[in-house]
């Protein structure tokens, strides 16, 4: 029996996705290539790892056991890589950072300055949703994650480093744009444009309205803050967004922040990592840099609407 790391990686994806097609998409492989890797792995082990019932595939008992060992092996390989990276020091190391969509408004600038300090570093930045961020942390696919809500999953830890106030925005022509102290209940008459489900901003806004007993009418769903801002500016509805995403539009008077009771929603940005992960020097240096300097990459709202 001699499974290769690649076969185990493909197996992990198929087992998690419960689908050859989805695993192939995730790994940028064709479906036949995935089937071939699994076939070779089953031959190497001498046992079937999946069984098909109807249209779905399920792990066999042997497959389930292999999944447990596969995770342990991936963890060990990751650790081995980090220890080896450690010998190279910060300057020649590798750094994989993943950030929530909204955090990209400042994370790219932080990473740009950091990489100027350590020009020999090989950097990877992934901008994705919360579900994928958690998966990457759990599977040890990245060093550090920037997210808007600390993970609750066992084995992960996070520390806050920056306020992330959420505001209600509207077009400058909106009738509420000039009103002061708008009662929260008044928003029930408005249409709220939202990000895709899985967005931390959307989740926080929906929780807030629910806590205050406001039934909000959801309008169009858009996948980026840029699209949300354009739609709000065009008068399609109002939205709850992070302050970091609208600084420029507010300065240029292209959007208005509504003075709604209870807002801003006070949140923070967190730097999260796998609890057991020994950070390589490059990741450690990046973490220290973020904790020390992140504040200088963003402005925050004025004292009267302070998000902290
Ligand atoms: P997101 O931001 O809405 O881009 O997912 C993360 C968060 O604020 O939790």
Could you describe the 3D structure shown?
This protein is α/β, with parallel strands linked by helices and 308 residues long. The protein has 3 domains: 5-74, Winged helix-like DNA-binding domain superfamily/Winged helix DNA-binding domain (Arc Repressor Mutant, subunit A, Orthogonal Bundle); 88-162 and 268-297, Periplasmic binding protein-like II (D-Maltodextrin-Binding Protein, domain 2, 3-Layer(aba) Sandwich), CATH 3.40.190; 166-257, D-Maltodextrin-Binding Protein, domain 2 (3-Layer(aba) Sandwich). 41% of the residues lie in helices and 21% in strands. It is built from 10 helices and 12 strands. A 5-stranded mixed beta sheet has the order 4-3-5-12-6, sandwiched between helices. A 5-stranded mixed beta sheet has the order 9-8-10-7-11. A two-stranded antiparallel ribbon has the order 1-2. Strand 1 (50-53) and strand 2 (56-59) form a beta hairpin. The protein starts with a helix and ends in a 15-residue tail after the last helix. The structure holds 2-phosphoglycolic acid (PGA). The site of 2-phosphoglycolic acid (PGA) has 12 residues, from helix 7.
